[in-house]
Write a structure and sequence with these properties.
Layout: E1 4-5, H1 11-18, H2 30-49, H3 63-72, H4 75-88, H5 100-103, H6 107-113, H7 123-132, H8 134-145, H9 158-170, E2 180-184, H10 190-201, E3 210-215, H11 218-226, H12 233-247, E4 262-267, E5 279-283, H13 296-308, E6 310-318, H14 326-329, H15 332-341, E7 344-347, E8 353-357
Parallel strand pairs: 2-3, 2-5, 3-4, 5-6
Antiparallel strand pairs: 1-4, 6-8, 7-8
Helix pairs in contact: 2-4, 2-7, 4-7, 7-8, 13-15
């Protein structure tokens, strides 16, 4: 699926573009209704024989409850039907494998993780709501693929930004005020807009200057390009307030400053060969060497593809906030060595790693 968006906050345009991704209206048919009824009976059987309190919001769950729930109401039953319902509501194949739907070990864990989207222990009302109501389906899908803790903040790597601010200033004359920058694996886009702010503040602009964000997930892509978080109104409001100045285009004759840097978000895999014009700056934060990309072959392929997209003199920067020992599995020196293998000279940067193309 090839997909790209220039950012906009215009309500009608956002709604029109959303129809490219999600199926409108009800998707409930006789077959799906039958499967929901069957799941409801399975849950009723579980509830009738469950010797502990049934789940409700705020209930503290323990391993005994988890084990008993899994024995009486296996997670696989609910998972397969929720998965099917969400996929029927999409015009693309959503990447649900890394979401709570597939990583939660028990139904109780999913209920706990997805509040307030899930408020009842019985999955049947949820499934009927998802099948019949496209707005509820949309909120649930975005909550699943963009949970509150995921991305969620601007300015996540301040020391990297400070270093980049200096680099942009030092290279303004060399690049003749024209800058092409990429935020690869941009997630929900906060880093992309932060990069655009740095580029503009450093004096780059005019024809040929561009800041792009790329991701492999269409829902992330849509959220980034439209500051769209239907499951989290507060986050959406704060996000739009932050990015609105970057998206403003002056009306003819208004005398206001024009939109000087073209921003675009497009679907892309980090390890794929890029067909676009090369970039002067590439960020790839929160991915390299972490839980999603740490095997040596895949990591080398990704770094090689990113290095190939750099223009001469361009820099690649990668920082992270990995926990659970990922830095021990893939230390910074290993990333620097892979950079050397792909023609980059490592840089001394205050946060993460960096390399420059000769």
């Amino acid at each position: 699926m090839q997909l790209s968006f220039t950012p906009t906050l215009e309500r009608e345009e956002v709604a029109s573009r959303l129809d490219r991704l999600l199926v409108p209206g009800s998707i409930l048919d006789a077959g799906l209704e039958h499967r929901i009824d069957r799941l409801a009976r399975a849950f009723q059987g579980c509830a009738a024989s469950y010797p502990l309190p049934l789940w409700a919001p705020g209930l503290v769950i323990d391993n005994e409850m988890r084990g008993l729930t899994e024995a009486l109401f296996p997670m696989a039953q609910a998972r397969s039907l929720i998965d099917l319902t969400l996929r029927r509501g999409c015009r693309f194949s959503p990447q649900l494998s890394g979401s709570y739907l597939h990583t939660a070990p028990t139904w109780l864990d999913l209920l706990h993780k997805l509040r307030p989207q899930l408020l009842k222990a019985d999955p049947a009302p949820l499934l009927r709501g998802l099948a019949v109501d496209p707005e509820r389906r949309r909120r649930f899908l975005f909550a699943l693929l963009l949970p509150h803790h995921y991305g969620g903040t601007f300015d996540r790597y301040p020391r990297q930004s400070q270093w980049l601010k200096g680099w942009l200033s030092d290279n303004l004359e060399r690049l003749k005020g024209r800058m092409r920058a990429l935020d690869s694996a941009c997630g929900s886009g906060e880093g992309t807009y932060g990069l655009a702010e740095l580029v503009l503040a450093a004096g780059y602009g005019g024809r040929g200057s561009a800041v792009h964000g790329s991701t492999l997930e269409p829902i992330e892509l849509f959220a980034a390009a439209h500051a769209f978080f239907p499951h989290d109104p507060e986050r959406e409001r704060e996000y739009r307030t932050r990015v609105a100045p970057l998206l403003f285009k002056a009306d003819a004759g208004s005398g206001a400053a024009p939109h000087r840097v073209a921003i675009e978000f497009y679907l892309d895999e980090v390890g794929a060969c890029g067909a676009r014009e090369r970039y002067d700056v590439i960020l790839c934060n929160g991915l390299l060497g972490g839980p999603l990309l740490h095997e040596t072959v895949e990591l080398s392929q990704a770094l090689g593809a990113l290095a190939a997209r750099l223009a001469p003199g361009g820099v690649l920067l990668a920082a992270d906030r990995f926990h659970a020992g990922w830095r021990l599995r893939v230390p910074a020196e290993q990333l620097r060595q892979l950079m050397r293998q792909h023609g980059l000279t490592p840089l001394a940067v205050p946060e993460g790693v960096g390399g420059v193309r000769a």
